[in-house]
Amino acid sequence: MAEQDLDISTELQASSRKEYFELSKHTTLQYIIYAGMIVCVVAFLHMVIAMPLMDVFFTSFMHADVASDGEVLEYRIAEGAPKDEVVTNLFTNWGIVERIAGMENEPNKMRIARYLFNPTLALLPLILFIGVTISTYIVSFLPKSIGLLRQKIQREIMNMLDTISISLYGEHTDAEIMELRRRVIDADIRDLYDLAKEYKISVDEMKNLQGALLWQDATSPFESFIRTQVALQFYMRSYFSIQYANAILGMVYMGAAVLIIIIGIRGLKFIPSSEPSIILFALSLEFILLIVYAIMLIFSPKEDEREQVAMAGESGGLFSLFGGGSQESQARNAEVESLLKIFMTQPPDTKKK
């Protein structure tokens, strides 16, 4: 009889692990919708917001005219250089023309471009960052069948519930997971502290888990949309900041390398001052990468929480079945912390004082 009960318990636990495995598989449609959403949002932001704002900047603050409608302009790459003719266009080649009195009386005279500006190149990192952020929020709100991020968040919810259940019950049933869900959802702030102590996780993790469960159980589209921010915060804290810390830090260093090279080339006069688009691209790229890394650090687990994640990875859980929470992963996270201290030029023992 005991063996039969053990077989039933194991089968019920396997059902939760099967659900986690199914949530880990994404469809091509989900990726297509996410990519299409990014393209549409980025195109809208670029054409409707970013380019008009840049036009206003040049006309209002630089007191110049913007030629972007196919007009042919006279252009000199440097003072004393032979003149050249450039054809302007809306997306990649703006001519910034100085306002000269009396030019309106000579409509056939070719105007002189003071700067050549590529709005697509210069604004790409900033627009792409904003577009990905908005698209991620929208996709998290869509149904699971087409929402890539929604399925990822639900997968991490299942993983955390299963990890807690294993630490409490060992071999557990779906009924015990549902009871765990109910206790977390119904808990007030005092109960959250008690549950965090009982489940051996931090209070912040417990609050994030409760917010993610409330988002998952939202009954109206408006409630789901409002709670999506909390669900994304849960995903960032429990998965993204742990798994992609090295990759993002590496991109920050690569962005710094690109910036150094471009600034160096500009110092050698290989990039003319009248064509600043590539410089603005490098500056905005490094700026956005630093912002992304800062956001990741905000949602990263604290030192004591990292130790709990490592212990949870050793004890089991659905995430450990797919390589998460391993000692190798924890070692990589420790290296990220060391690199961050070097990057921020802080003494190694600053945190100990």
Task: Give the SSE layout.
Blueprint: H1 2-23, H2 28-60, E1 64-67, E2 72-75, E3 84-87, E4 94-98, E5 113-117, H3 119-141, H4 148-169, H5 174-186, H6 189-199, H7 203-216, H8 221-243, H9 245-267, H10 277-298, H11 303-315, H12 318-321, H13 327-343
Antiparallel strand pairs: 1-4, 2-3, 4-5
Helix pairs in contact: 1-4, 2-3, 3-4, 3-8, 3-10, 4-5, 4-7, 4-8, 6-7, 7-8, 9-10
Describe what this molecule looks like in 3D.
Strand 2 and strand 3 form a beta hairpin. This protein is mainly α and 353 residues long. The chain has two domains: 2-26 and 126-348, no CATH class; 28-118, no CATH class. The strands form two sheets. Strands 1-4-5 form a three-stranded antiparallel beta sheet, covered by helices on one side. It has helices at residues 2-23, 28-60, 119-141, 148-169, 174-186, 189-199, 203-216, 221-243, 245-267, 277-298, 303-315, 318-321, 327-343, and strands spanning 64-67, 72-75, 84-87, 94-98, 113-117. Helix 1 runs antiparallel to helix 4, helix 2 packs across helix 3 (119-141) and helix 3 (119-141) packs parallel to helix 10 (277-298).
Short note summarizing the structure:
This protein is mainly alpha-helical. It is built from 13 helices and five strands. The protein folds into two domains: 2-26 and 126-348, no CATH class; 28-118, no CATH class.
